[in-house]
Amino acid sequence: MNKLTIAGGGSGNPEYMLPVTAEKIKNSDYIIAGKRFAEFADRKKFYPFGSIENTVKLIKQLLEKGSVTVIV
Question: How far apart are CA 51 and CA 31, in angstroms?
């Protein structure tokens, strides 16, 4: 079973991002976050937040393929 991680992203400024969050962005198969975090993730694995309902569906779909980190 693939892993879901919820990580704090802070303000989106790389100087204030926790090292553990930066590590999760680097090592997760997929990232779901606000658009301000898009520059930190490979575009092929980044998905911006949508509605809550759509984001939950997306998380379920992506977990079937790999690990997912949600940056909040």
Answer: 16
